[in-house]
Design brief:
Shape: globular
Order of helices and strands: EHEHEHEHEHEEHEHHEHHHHHH
CATH class of the largest domain: Alpha Beta
CATH superfamily of the largest domain: NAD(P)-binding Rossmann-like Domain
Largest sheet: 6 strands, parallel
Length: about 290
């Protein structure tokens, strides 16, 4: 199977590396061409100059893009992915369900589109331990399951296009809520004179500990010493899309709205490019 991979950011580069071992041939493209050339040299794979050229050279196109506008720009237009000859497109970024519908409406005739966003940080991407939420049936996923298996520990098929996108937003809203609550709990403990590491020891040993707190512990305790894995700006984007979806579906999301408000405040205060763990540093500065 000839595979094309588009979007070589913090997550995508690791995913492409894992795909390289499962594909008969891999072709890559990235908006920042130097990243694509460097990875192509590392993997010994092909690199092309335009999304259309990639689509013309592969059977399956996989994209890992930042948001709806980025995905629309790469798929649409005279040099976009949809202008090429590929007939299987898999969007793995965190997108709105409306955008998945746009992709489906604008895809080439007889093309198959699957939304298959992933859950897991850069470490999970590197170690092929991602959770993949696929908006399709098991039968529809069958032809590309070797690719999913190369990147993830589990693929859950949700039966219908767009449901992968919805579940990714639901999962991320929970993650960002935990991130905010952790920052508040740590700030409370520190204000009472409890050492940060000791406070985290207790939280990690408690019933409240989620897996993300364990693997993100080093970043929470020493943000400056670690590379950024997921920015405040991306977290704010996720929660804005989630809030809009909740409004469209008529569901209440008071906790999500509170999380979004704090992310907006942090971004306004200059935290946009910092890791989402920096909400702890932001909350330390918040006073009643």
């Amino acid at each position: 199977m000839r595979v094309g991979f588009v979007g070589l950011g913090r997550m995508g580069a690791h995913m492409a590396r894992n795909i390289a071992g499962a594909a008969d041939a891999l072709t890559i493209w990235n908006r920042s061409g130097d990243k694509a050339v460097a990875l192509a040299n590392e993997l010994g794979c092909a690199v092309v100059q335009t999304p259309r050229a990639l689509s013309d050279s592969v059977d399956v196109v996989m994209t890992m893009l930042a948001d709806d506008p980025a995905s629309e720009a790469v798929h649409g237009g005279a040099e976009g992915l949809f202008a090429g000859s590929a007939r299987m497109f898999i969007e793995m970024g965190t997108m709105s369900p409306d955008h998945i519908n746009w992709l489906a409406a604008n895809a080439p005739k007889n093309a198959r589109l699957i939304d298959a966003p992933v859950s897991g940080a850069t470490q999970a991407a590197r170690e092929a331990q991602l959770l993949i939420m696929a908006g399709c049936t098991s039968d529809e996923a069958g032809p590309v399951m070797p690719l999913f298996d190369a990147m993830g520990k589990q693929t859950l098929c949700l039966g219908q296009r767009g449901r992968g996108a919805v579940m990714k937003l639901a999962v991320n809203s929970l993650i960002h809520g935990i991130n905010q609550t952790l920052a508040e709990a740590m700030t409370l403990a520190e204000a009472a004179g409890i050492d940060s590491q000791a406070a985290f020891d207790v939280i990690e040993a408690s019933a409240a500990c989620a897996p993300m707190l364990k693997y993100r512990r080093p970043i929470y305790l020493d943000e400056a010493a670690h590379p950024v894995t997921f920015t405040i700006a991306l977290a704010r984007k996720d929660m804005e899309v989630t809030a809009a979806l909740a409004q469209a579906l008529g569901t209440a999301m008071p906790q999500g709205q509170a999380t979004l408000e704090k992310l907006i405040q942090a971004e306004t205060a200059g935290y946009a490019a910092r890791d989402m763990a920096s909400m702890l540093a932001f909350m330390r500065k918040e006073t009643l």
